[in-house]
Inverse folding.
């Protein structure tokens, strides 16, 4: 199976995938194009094959996945697309490389706020966009996104680029809840409170808290789990130990969450098997495996959350449908430029 998988990737890299379709179309196979890393999805796929007898072939890409499927056109062997972030899922739909799935099982597993109303994409797991706070220097245990614009945090907040998908979705949710004008005022306040020019990834913000460069950072929940248990780079354990997770707006509308998700490829040659896989990914069995491997939250209500994630505290997700929030992504991106968020606090 591993050899077959490597074969698919090698052929795809050589651009010859479309001419080698027969093997990929064999009965009992499902072809997955994935932005999610192999170590994250392999335990799930093994469980799927064991349960259904359907073999999986994975093409992992870290960029250009949508363009590849579009270029392959109706010859594309892609059945299921696995990716992260609402921005990428919307982009896949807009590019016309997905198809509608109307399935009772899938729809009963995945809450409506985490799937496309037209069935083009479905959330598989959620991740909260939370506030990392210094244990040493921040006393409070609650916070709101709105409060990040309060001058009391002047020079105290660190974040990655405002144009990153994770922040764009957060800002889009601020627009959805407050309207553009108020959201822009808020963003100006956030900019004024930055400790430095937005840079690095989410984990770099935890590192900056550890180093005393800032008191608050904005980051996704799963990175905290990845840092706590990082045997490869144990210094990350210290970063995580220096901070606590604050779930913004727990006492009102809830914390902004984003999703990892799946979509059925438009020309899926193995549609039935693809549907089986999508049903499986929404099942409690798969949800628990996924959530455990990457410290995400299962999208299925009531599915098990890993102990590490439970240790952060309880999340109350914002219940506004993600599709509604995502409509404001473009406005959010333009706002980041207009406000000059990525220029940092001084300009
Ligand atoms: Fe991430």
């Amino acid at each position: 199976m591993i050899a077959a998988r490597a074969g698919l990737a090698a052929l795809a890299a050589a651009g010859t995938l479309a001419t080698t379709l027969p093997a990929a179309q064999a009965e009992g196979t499902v072809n997955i194009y994935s932005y999610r890393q192999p170590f994250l999805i392999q335990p799930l796929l093994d469980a799927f094959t064991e349960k259904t007898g359907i073999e999986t072939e994975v093409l992992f890409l870290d960029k250009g996945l949508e363009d590849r499927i579009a270029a392959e056109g109706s010859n594309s062997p892609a059945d299921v697309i696995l990716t992260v972030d609402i921005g990428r899922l919307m982009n896949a739909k807009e590019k016309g490389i997905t198809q509608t799935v109307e399935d009772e099982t899938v729809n009963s597993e995945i809450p409506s706020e985490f799937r496309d109303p037209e069935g083009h994409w479905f959330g598989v797991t959620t991740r909260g966009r939370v506030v990392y706070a210094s244990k040493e220097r921040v006393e409070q245990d609650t916070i709101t996104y709105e409060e990040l614009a309060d001058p009391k945090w002047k020079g105290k907040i660190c974040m990655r680029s405002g144009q990153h998908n994770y922040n764009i979705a957060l800002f889009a949710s601020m627009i959805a809840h407050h309207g553009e004008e108020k959201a822009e005022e808020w963003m100006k306040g956030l900019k004024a409170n930055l400790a430095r020019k937005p840079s690095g990834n989410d984990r770099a913000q935890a590192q900056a808290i550890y180093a005393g460069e800032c008191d608050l950072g904005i980051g996704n929940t799963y990175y905290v789990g990845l840092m706590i248990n990082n045997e490869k780079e144990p210094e990350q354990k210290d970063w995580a130990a220096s901070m606590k997770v604050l779930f913004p707006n727990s006492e009102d509308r809830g914390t902004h969450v984003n999703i990892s998700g799946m979509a059925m490829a438009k020309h899926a040659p193995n549609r039935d098997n693809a549907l089986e896989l999508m049903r499986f990914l929404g099942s409690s069995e798969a949800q628990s495996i996924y959530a455990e491997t990457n410290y995400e939250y299962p999208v299925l209500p009531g599915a098990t959350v890993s102990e590490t994630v439970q240790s952060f505290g309880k999340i109350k997700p914002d219940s506004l449908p993600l599709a509604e929030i995502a409509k404001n992504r473009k406005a959010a991106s333009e706002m980041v430029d207009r406000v000059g968020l990525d220029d940092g606090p001084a300009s």
Q: What stands out?
A: Residues 38-52 form the longest helix (15 residues). The CA atoms of residues 34 and 60 lie 5 Å apart. The pocket of fe (ii) ion is lined by residues 220 (CB under 6 Å).
